[in-house]
Design goal:
Blueprint: H1 4-14, H2 20-30, H3 32-35, H4 40-46, H5 51-60, H6 66-88, H7 93-98, H8 106-122, E1 126-130, H9 132-135, H10 139-147, E2 152-154, E3 169-174, H11 178-189, E4 196-201, E5 216-219, H12 226-249
Parallel strand pairs: 1-2, 1-3, 3-4, 4-5
Helix pairs in contact: 1-2, 1-10, 2-5, 8-12, 10-12
């Protein structure tokens, strides 16, 4: 059974309208670490949401009492902390890199992964954007990064209030580059180029597409195979969260 945070992330990633429930879910992700210490009255006072907004969203998750929700959230936070310690500290990094299609040496590739972990540590939000299919494999990455205190959310074009910040790290995932070509205009209008952009793609020609100059490019080797690309992306994010955990969290 998924922990509460993963369920909230899945809701946010799959939502298609900007409504009160979307905003409530965003608030919960932004303040995830604080929720265990706050009463419902405190959340209402400190946010722009009503008690009805919050309880309606909790109803989507199967909870009709705030204290039951908070108790479950605290249990899940403790459980995830234990899971991360067990999984992220005892992983065969060399074996994981061997399962990836990379150019250059393993040492150079690990240096790139460590660089990306450092960029995340030094900046604010993590924003995930790109093709729907590769984005679908990032939930575990989001769950662990939020559990480690980093906001990690998916970009939605329908969110008219969204603005990229110069402290954002934006991971743009696209095997062929089509997702970038379709969204580049709206992304630039929302300030994408102010952020630190990490492009993950099989199509290296999109590195400088439409004046969106990626700060870092992870060239996923392959011939536009969506299934293989998703597998490689999932492994890459596994490596990033493992290195972040061991270098900056424990």
């Amino acid at each position: 059974m998924d922990i509460l945070l993963s369920r909230i992330i899945r809701y946010l990633n799959g939502v298609i309208t900007d409504d009160r429930q979307y905003r409530t879910a965003l608030f919960m992700v932004e303040h995830y670490q604080e929720l265990r210490c706050k009463t419902l009255e405190e959340i209402v006072k400190e946010s722009e949401y009503t008690e009805e907004d919050i309880m309606t969203f909790m109803g989507y998750l199967g909870y009709h009492d705030y204290e039951d929700f908070r108790e479950r959230l605290m249990m899940d936070q403790d459980l995830r902390s234990s899971q991360m310690q067990l999984r992220l500290l005892h992983t065969d990094i060399d074996g994981m890199i061997s399962s990836l299609h990379i150019s250059g040496s393993k040492e150079d590739f690990l240096n790139l992964v460590d660089h990306l972990a450092e960029i995340i540590y030094e900046n604010g939000r993590i924003i995930l954007a790109g093709g729907y299919s590769p984005l679908s494999v990032t939930v575990d990455f989001q769950t662990d990064m939020i559990s480690m205190g980093k906001q990690a959310v998916e970009y939605h074009q329908f969110d008219k209030n969204f603005k990229f910040k110069d402290t954002d790290v934006v991971f743009f995932l696209t095997a062929t580059g089509r997702a970038l070509s379709h969204a580049s205009k709206s992304l630039k209008e929302k300030g994408l180029c102010e952020s630190h952009i990490v492009l993950m793609t099989q199509n290296i020609k999109y590195k400088n597409y439409d004046s969106i100059c990626a700060d870092d490019v992870v060239h996923v080797l392959g011939t536009f195979d969506g299934i293989e690309f998703n597998y490689q992306i999932m492994r890459l994010f596994d490596l990033i969260r493992i290195r972040y955990y061991t270098k900056y969290f424990i």
